[in-house]
Input
Amino acid sequence: MAASPAAPLTRPGRAGPKPRVREKDGKFYTVDSFENFLTRTGVNAGNLSSGGTYGFNPVSRLRLKMEWAYRGSWVVGTIVDCVAEDATREGVQLICDASPDEIAKVENHADELQVWPELCDTEKWSRLYGGSVGLIMIDGQDVATPFDVTTVSRDQFRGVLPLDRWALFPSMNDLISEQGPDIGNPRYYEVRPDTGTGLPYMKLHYSRVIRLDGVRLPYWQKITENYWGQSVVERLWDRLIAFDSATQGTAQLVYKAHLRNYKVKDLRKIIGQGGKALDGLLAQMNMIRQFQSSEGMTLMDTEDEFEVHPYSFTGLDEVLLQFGQQLSGASQIPLVRLFGQSPAGLNSTGESDLRMYYDGIKRQQTARLGRGVRKIYEAAWRSKHGADPPEGWSTQFKPLWQMDDEQRATVAETLTRAVLEPYEKGVTARSTTLKELRQVSKVTGIWTNISDEIIQEAVAEDNEQPPTPEELAIANGKVGPDGKPLGANGATDPGRPSKESGSGSQPN
Output
């Protein structure tokens, strides 16, 4: 009979397995379930791995260090900038029933106010410092009051003002208690003149700002950061040090690429005597340095020896590549985008890496910028047109992956054929087909001249009542307006009875 498995250890009064805890040097370690004391296998089992741990290095709090790294390291600058620039590069398209001219006016209004460059800076400073806000500027409204976008009138929207976490003082004693996506965040942010922003004192209500966190933190860590996140640079700080150290070390090796040794008999005596003997030695060394070149000669005494020790750089490129790959993984930026490096491997173009990267940017756009961008464009619409936006309108981020002309032509041909085929078979109406073709223009750039007027005319034609059989006969020339059959020459055919005769008799 097989023995039954042993019951797991449990705490008194508590169900479930008991975690194994070991005390060492005043610290408690939770170890895994596998250990071999003879081979010292297992975490905290006395092997070399037992000394490894994680420390607390909150470099996000060191504003100057973050700024020095951003200004002095191109890797830090690229990691901070490229995601923010890609997320705000193409902007959004307005999806509504308004005319193209009305939509173009709102988009031009946003461009004139530099909305997207300012949103890009807001995203950058949130990634660098761990948090930032973009103030939605509305002329004539108190920024300390809750923001109601329906109160925006013509020409009131003034753009977006980026402010990083070090320019703001959040109200840590007044947090948002209303249920919603902002619950737990500060209700107000103060801008004080002593922060060096050059702005007057302002108290900003949370509904008037677009808040962005760098890396969102758990509850207790969020409190330690004054309800902000942490810099995206903090997690990869050690990898940055390793990469820059390896790069600088490789650069230093260039100076050691060809070590040369010159052996002189009785060198110690010459140095000890000094005077003319030492001066003669130094003169000889200067002469060798002066005339020694790829085509020159090295003159020396027969008892002297000259040696060259070349240095090999084999393997250094692989080491740097490994450090670069760690930075790429830590920042979630592919090598082809982070370093501008051509992808390695057979038939590798880097297209799949960029597509995955753009998919990640798409998620960040929706999660971080989507709600704020909709609020901005609704304010811009009211500011430009002085009226409410169309019913059911929305914003959609434009795709980052751009097709070339050949790909766009192929896609346009395929989509156009797919739209026209149901129309030719009588499944869809003309107006529906035109609407679908205009929708295709957002992807391919073709059929952009289908205006609302053309669609309305097609709708009117589709709504007309079908002609009666008599109207069809008149239109086809089979009968006249009086209902009598027509002959070949257009006159009434005497060989056929008319409707007025009421009989089938033929005339004599």
Q: What stands out?
A: DSSP finds 15 helices and twelve strands in the chain. The chain has four domains: 21-50, 60-257+311-402, 260-308, 405-463.
